[in-house]
Amino acid sequence: MSGGKLLELFMDHARAMDIEISNIKAEAINEADGTYNILVGNDMVRTKTIIIATGVPYRATLPRENFFLGKGLGYCATCDGPIYRAKDVLIIGHSEEAEHEAKFMAEICSKVYFLPMYEEIGDLDPRIEIVNDQPAAIMGKDFVEGLELNNGQTIKVEGLFVLGAETSPERLVPGLEIVDKHIRVNRNQESNLPGVYAAGDCTGPPYQIAKSVGEGQVAGLNASKYSVLLSTQKIPIENNNQ
Ligand SMILES: Cc1cc2nc3c(=O)[nH]c(=O)nc-3n(C[C@H](O)[C@H](O)[C@H](O)COP(=O)(O)OP(=O)(O)OC[C@H]3O[C@@H](n4cnc5c(N)ncnc54)[C@H](O)[C@@H]3O)c2cc1C
How confident is residue 242, by pLDDT bands cut at 50, 70 and 90? Predict the structure, then answer.
């Protein structure tokens, strides 16, 4: 059968197991008191165990992109957007999901440009100006001052967002140990952070389905063992009397 058909059957199986599936990008994960808060769209999901399977890590494609990170360049408009309130920003959107973030920015910024890197753009907020070209270079010395396009035109902005591209794991989870752009895991698929597991392409090559599925299985088993261990942890005797 085709790969698409096989995927459909796997999805049917997962649904039959009553697994809740949320097709929303996880924007950021932060640890607080042994639990992780995951920013998913406008919601915060709290959990003690996470398996990261985000695929091949995003690699910066624009010259000096890494240099400008945090200096006018961001990868999450929902997280960093408020810094650019009443300012001009440009969004490079890699998927339809970026359109929601562009709308959010249009509410708070004085001007939003949207440069789609995909076809079939949806109905964008009328306040957003579409840029029909490819990005060539980020302008600015110490901070983002604008974007130069392939056609030589320049657009002056104070904020630049690259959205909808794959998330690099270290941006997703601060403190996660990365080796050569991939999440470092042991044979139990454990990362350096307690309760955080990783599987698939995000842990490194070979980028193959069999390897990803196998790692996913190991991560799944160990993550559930970890959850059980947490819920059966001994409680100190003084608390037991309460
Ligand atoms: C064109 C092509 C052909 C290939 N052919 C083969 C082949 O013949 N045989 C083979 O074995 N392998 C092949 N591969 C490789 C194989 O597809 C990968 O190894 C496998 O899909 C990796 O699985 P994964 O779950 O780790 O990542 P992916 O399948 O890449 O899935 C990662 C998912 O995570 C999502 N994601 C990323 N960040 C976030 C976030 N922050 N929040 C929410 N979701 C997020 C992504 O959108 C994506 O859906 C091929 C790959 C490509 C691109």
Answer: very low
pLDDT tens-place string over residues 65-114: 989 989 999 988 877 888 999 999 999 998 888 898 899 999 999 999 99
223 occurs within a structural domain: yes
| CATH number of the domain to which 153 belongs | 3.50.50.60
The answer to whether 181 touches 170, Cβ cutoff 8 Å, is: no
Higher pLDDT, 165 or 204: 204
Q: What is the arithmetic mean of pLDDT over 152-170? A: 88
Domain boundary among 109, 140, 163: 163
* Domain boundary, last residue among 142, 163, 184: 163
Return the residue whose CA atom lies nearest to atom 44 of ligand 1: 25
pLDDT in tens, 180-196: 889 999 999 999 999 99
- Among 195, 200, 166, which Cα is nearest to 183's? 200
Domain count within the chain: 2
71 and 155 fall within a common domain? yes
Q: Look at 19-23, 138-142, 219-223 and tell me which has the smallest mean pLDDT.
A: 19-23
Closest ligand 1 atom, residue 216 Cα: 25
The CB density around residue 3, as the number of other CB atoms within 10 Å, is: 8
Instruction: Name the closest-CA residue to atom 50, ligand 1.
Output: 208
Domain enclosing residue 110, as ranges: 65-163
Specify the pairing of strand 196-198 against strand 50-52: parallel
**Cβ of 83 below 6 Å from ligand 1:** no
107 part of a folded domain: yes
Q: Using the mean position of ligand 1's atoms as its centre, give its distance from the Cα of residue 58 in Å.
A: 12
Q: Are 183 and 177 in contact (CB under 8 A)?
A: yes
- Give residue 160 CA to ligand 1 midpoint distance, Å: 27
Determine whether the shortest distance from the Cβ of 25 to ligand 1 is under 6 A. yes
Q: Looking at ligand 1, which residue's alpha carbon is closest to its atom 39?
A: 54
